[in-house]
Amino acid sequence: MRLDGHLRSFLFRGRILAVVSVPRWPVVVFDLDGTVANTIPLIIASYEHAMLSVLGVRPTSSEARGWIGQTLYDTFSERYPERARELVDSYIAWNGEHLAELLEDYPGTPELLADLRAAGVTIGVATSKRLVSATNTLKAAGLAALLPLVVSMEDTVRHKPSPEPLLLALDRLGARAVDAVYIGDAVVDVLAARAAGMAAIAVTWGAGDRADLEAAGPVAVVDTVAELRDKLFEV
Question: Catalytic residue numbers?
Answer without folding.
Answer: 31
